[in-house]
Design goal:
alpha/beta; Rossmann fold; 7-stranded parallel beta sheet; 9 helices; 41% helix
């Protein structure tokens, strides 16, 4: 058994939505370090180009708002102008909304559900031809959905649509996997826990405090997220299909509950 290149991504192309910052940027850096050519997309063009410049010559910016089906189709068309096939798609772009139950607005529901659930489906659909062009039984193409531990457990905040969207995306991952495996495309997901980002300001601004509630006693760092994504994207993860890998320091699966004595 030769494991020398088990985690390498040489010669592969990847497209990462929400790739200009946070978890998307962590994954982009990891893929590039393993030899991939990475296209990053985000709604804000300036941030997208700045991140691509920072990540180096193997990173290309494709600014696009994928919150609509038209935006998903436009991004797929942009990518098709540059490449004829796509080895790895990371559906990372997401949104959150928090307001009390009594006043939670429809716009806070629709924005989150559209970007977090609808867009990964329709972007994958739009890129299906490019993924099929790259895929083979010997080297399947990969779709990695970025879900959340908030789709597996409750957080203490009033993020109703976020909870629902991430739980839905975990199950959608399974359903998409069941269909796309026919085309040698593996669909999986990563459910991050506490990583410092604009999305998770608690971890970003109060990391030490947040860490006290995590069994590993720390928040996630870039290498933790990059490592999980590289595993799924590379030869090492070729036999993983439909599953969700939880990357959270043990909060979901290794934290004991509380009991109330009678």
């Amino acid at each position: 058994m030769d494991t020398t290149n088990l985690f390498r991504l040489d010669g592969r192309t990847a497209l990462i939505t929400g790739g200009s910052r946070g978890i998307g940027k962590m994954i982009a850096a990891g893929f590039i370090a393993q030899g991939a050519k990475v296209y990053i997309s985000s709604r804000k063009a300036d941030a997208c180009f700045a991140a691509a410049a920072e990540l180096g010559p193997d990173c290309v910016a494709l600014p696009q708002d994928v919150s609509t089906v038209a935006g998903c189709q436009a991004l797929a068309a942009q990518y098709a102008e540059a490449e004829g096939a796509l080895d790895i798609l990371v559906n990372n772009a997401g949104a959150a909304w928090g307001e009390p139950f009594e006043v939670f607005p429809e716009k806070g529901w629709d924005k989150v559900m559209d970007l977090n659930v609808k867009s990964p489906f329709f972007l994958t659909q739009a890129l299906h031809p490019a993924l099929k062009a790259a895929a083979s039984r010997e080297r399947p193409a990969k779709v990695i959905n970025i879900t959340s531990i908030d789709g597996q457990r409750l957080n203490p905040w009033d993020t109703y649509s976020y909870h629902a969207s991430k739980s839905a995306l975990i199950y959608l991952t399974k359903r998409m996997a069941a269909r796309l495996i026919d085309d040698a495309i593996n669909v999986t997901s990563i459910a991050p826990g506490a990583f410092a980002s604009e999305m998770n300001r608690s971890a970003r601004d109060h990391g030490s405090e947040v860490a006290r509630g995590i069994p590993a006693r720390r928040i996630g760092v870039d290498e933790d997220m990059a490592g999980a994504a590289i595993y799924l994207a590379s030869r090492a993860g070729d036999y993983v299909v439909g599953d969700t890998i939880t990357v959270d320091g043990g909060l979901v699966h290794a934290a004991v509950g509380t009991s109330i004595d009678a």
